[in-house]
Design brief:
Radius of gyration of chain A: 22 Å
Largest sheet of chain A: 11 strands, mixed
Strand content of chain A: 5-15%
CATH class of chain A: Alpha Beta
Number of strands of chain A: 11
Helix content of chain A: 25-40%
Distance between the termini of chain A: 29 Å
Largest interface: A-B, 71 and 54 residues
Radius of gyration of chain B: 23 Å
Mean pLDDT of chain A: 94
Number of helices of chain A: 16
Mean pLDDT of chain B: 83
Low-confidence stretches of chain B: none
Order of helices and strands of chain A: HHEHEHEHEHEEHHEHEHHHHEHHEEH
Oligomer: heterodimer
Number of strands of chain B: 2
Strand order of the largest sheet of chain B: 1-2
Order of helices and strands of chain B: HHHHEE
Distance between the termini of chain B: 48 Å
Chain lengths: ~500, ~100
């Protein structure tokens, strides 16, 4: 009756209102499909069939009574496992939280529930969001739905794979250095990292607090705009959240205004190390954007090459303090204390943290501890904070000349499972084009260059906007999408 | 070239309250050495008179009225949070002794 792969948020809303299907039947259909498809993709860590079907029934009852339904009513979503949904597991793909059940809803989850969304389950990720391939999960390896021998990217790899494989209409992820945009690019879906402060992080398991943001992964740019609109806003539970003003152009971009935007191509992003295919696809995307009548010109962001070092000092420093809360006591213990293990508090910390954290988490905690330790603080951490300022100033200067910046998302298409696991520095390099935005706090979106079907590996391009100007990047994205799908650009 | 010894790794493990497996120290020392050496390229950036960027945005302090919040409405009930604790009794959290081996 339904074609899961064609569904978008808008189509679900229309279908429910026109009584073409019920939310219950739709949700049931998704679970049936997940049962077979996820056996090979492995995107989900846990499912909540009972909760989802109950929420779907509530939507159907509201429709039957003729009540108004929310803007996300009946939309089946997947949620990254580092976001708290009350009563469901939230493991962050770590053994440390294997037995933890969320005691409250994250603010974004509360907002989505009020809008009527249905949560199918929690998705796999790199442990505590540390990684670029989802291979650092303590529980399973998620496969790229376009090629099961390749990674989906990370750290929101489960969310990206679930949407790409039509096992959810949309998903939430988190992005600290590219963890929404890079898997979106590798899986051929849309991924938005909002401006730092646009979305509350209350109820997100913190990784690096000056960099983390929550955002949507969707099939279309239009859906990304709808979801961003639903989750944004100031929240007393996150002091960094901001009451920014957004006009109705966020949801309804106008071509006449979009055409006036100037797009910059930073020469430092079009460098050696980008594979040939990615280069060609990005070139094609630029041509399409020009054909909308948008001015495109070269710009310079001179400190780009320092972003990776800067990020890999600041992020682990923040990680080492954020994961200090995982002491093997507060969120449940890994297992009963062994006879030979120390019974005092310090001994328990050492034993539980040693067993509970995976290799990459341990590596980053040690790195962060090193750059913050006495004698090295100024040489590393203080230096990185100054370089971070220079990187932000590069963007500030560029945004005097242009309104939006276009770059690749990742230097390569999806790589093979196991290809980069033994060399952390190589793995870190897969985030070089996404990291600078987190350092500068800017919004960015990854958009698939084309609709990828039939075994082709997807490539995404990134649009970077001014702070709180998600409307610009989503607007160009929506026009691009219509052009790509041969739909009328002006609605 | 930054040199990281296994003793440094042991010291970092102690600071971060984390036991490491014996064979792992060498691998971590090698990884840290490679990564820290890569960071040396930052030395070529002139940061004289540059103010450090200490957070995600140039935030001003955020104040609110000094009223007691009803946390249960905002952040879950205290019962749910206490239930997540491995050992608890009558609303109290039970933790191991800080000093020595005694119960």
């Amino acid at each position: 009756m339904l074609f899961l792969k064609d569904l978008t948020i808008k189509k679900i809303q229309e279908g429910l209102k026109n009584k073409e299907f019920t939310a219950f039947a739709l949700t049931k259909e998704f679970f049936d499909y997940i049962e077979t498809r996820d056996a090979e993709v492995q995107a989900y860590l846990s499912l909540d069939k009972d909760g989802a079907l109950a929420a779907a029934t509530a939507v159907d009852v509201a429709i039957a009574k003729g009540e108004d339904i929310g803007p996300l009513a009946g939309v089946p979503m997947a949620i990254k496992d580092n976001l708290l949904v009350k009563g469901l597991p939230a493991t962050a793909a770590s053994k440390m939280l294997e037995k933890y059940t969320a005691a409250y809803d994250a603010t974004v989850i509360k907002k989505l529930k009020e809008a009527g969304a249905i949560f199918l389950g929690k998705t796999n990720m790199d442990e505590f969001a540390m990684g670029s391939s989802t291979e650092n999960s303590a529980f399973k390896v998620t496969k790229n739905p376009h090629d099961l021998e390749r990674v989906p990217g990370g750290s929101s790899g489960g969310s990206a794979a679930a949407v790409a494989a039509h096992m959810a209409v949309a998903a939430l992820g988190t992005d600290t250095g590219g963890s929404i945009r890079q898997p979106a690019s590798l899986c051929g879906v849309v991924g938005l990292k909002p401006t730092y402060g646009a979305v509350s992080r209350s109820g997100a398991i913190a990784m690096a607090s000056s960099l983390d943001q929550i955002g949507p992964l969707t099939k279309t740019v239009e859906d990304a705009a709808i979801l961003f609109n639903a989750i944004k806003g100031k929240d007393p539970l996150d002091a960094t959240s901001v009451d920014a003003e957004y006009s109705d152009e966020l949801l309804h971009p106008r071509l006449e205004n979009i055409k006036k935007l100037r797009v910059g191509l930073p020469k430092e992003y079009f460098i050696e190390g980008i594979d040939e295919r990615t280069k060609q696809e990005i070139g094609a995307a630029i041509e399409k954007i020009k054909s909308l009548g948008i001015e495109v010109k070269e710009i310079s962001l001179p400190n780009t090459k320092h972003a990776l070092s800067c990020y890999y000092i600041i992020m682990p420093a923040e990680v080492s303090s954020n994961v200090a809360r995982f002491d093997g006591i507060r969120y449940g213990r890994l297992d009963e204390l062994q006879e030979h293990e120390p019974k005092n508090l310090l001994g328990i910390y050492h034993a539980q943290r040693g067993k509970g954290f995976g290799r990459e988490v341990r590596r980053r905690v040690m790195l962060g501890t090193y750059v913050l330790s006495s004698g090295y603080y100024d040489a590393y951490y203080a230096k990185a904070q100054k370089v971070r300022k220079l990187i932000k100033e590069d963007f500030d200067n560029a945004f005097k000349e242009v309104d939006v910046i276009l770059t690749p998302v990742a230097p390569t298409t999806a790589f093979k499972i196991g290809e980069k696991t033994s060399d952390p520095l190589q793995m870190y390099l897969s985030d070089i084009f996404t990291i600078p935005l987190n350092l500068a706090g800017l919004p960015g979106i990854s958009i698939p260059v084309r609709a990828y079907e039939g075994g082709e590996l997807p490539v995404g391009f990134q649009l970077i906007g001014k702070p709180f100007r998600e409307a610009d990047i989503l607007g160009i994205g929506q026009m691009y999408e219509r052009l790509r799908n041969s739909e009328p650009v002006e609605l | 070239m930054t040199h990281i010894t296994e003793e440094t790794v042991e010291y970092l493990a102690k600071l971060s309250r984390m036991d490491l497996e014996g064979g792992e120290k060498k691998k971590i020392a090698g990884d840290l050495e490679e990564i820290l050496t890569h960071f040396e390229e930052l030395n070529e950036v002139d940061t004289t008179n540059v103010e450090p960027m200490t957070g995600g945005t140039a935030q001003r302090n955020v104040f609110r009225e000094d009223d007691a919040d009803t946390r249960s409405e905002m952040n879950g009930s205290s019962k749910d949070i206490i239930d997540a604790f491995p050992e608890h009794a009558r609303g109290y959290l039970k933790v191991p002794a800080v000093f020595g081996e005694q119960e």
